[in-house]
Write a structure and sequence with these properties.
The chain is mostly helical. The radius of gyration is 20 Å and the shape is elongated. Helices cover 88% and strands 0% of the residues. The protein has two domains: 62 residues; 67 residues. Helix 1 packs antiparallel against helix 2, helix 2 packs antiparallel against helix 3 and helix 3 runs antiparallel to helix 4.
């Protein structure tokens, strides 16, 4: 919980400083925002690293196809990266590119989820047949 509060404080401080720089028409606004997002993402990923390791160890004990967890995490990564880039595009004034990037990220995630859906359907059909 304290990590989340610290991240919120960092995001608010970066936003306020960014507003100040924008009022001054400084070219440092976008690099400041990118740096703040990079720091936030680094903290989140380092925090989640240990949790993901334990999650994967639990998944190894369950008889799931090995590609399933990887596909789920790839989909989550695609969503996060595409939305982050879309937000940066939107912030820099290119709303059309941001919308296109956000849509492309969502569609790619759907394409990544198709094998998972196939696995679920096959499992359901096997359960119905037996």
């Amino acid at each position: 919980m304290t990590i989340v509060l610290k991240l919120c404080a960092l995001a608010l401080a970066a936003s306020l400083f960014s507003l100040f720089l924008r009022a001054q028409q400084s070219p440092l606004t976008l690099p400041l925002q990118i740096a703040a997002v990079a720091v936030l993402a680094g903290v989140v990923l380092s925090t989640l690293g240990g949790r993901l390791t334990s999650f994967f160890s639990v998944l190894e004990r369950v008889s799931l196809p090995s590609a399933l967890p990887q596909t789920l995490f790839k989909g989550a990564a695609v969503c996060l990266v595409s939305e982050l880039c879309a937000a940066l595009c939107r912030e820099s004034g290119s709303a059309a590119a941001a919308d296109a990037l956000s849509f492309a990220g969502r569609m790619f995630t759907v394409v990544l989820a198709l094998p998972v859906c196939e696995t679920v359907i096959e499992t359901v059909l096997e359960l119905i047949a037996s």
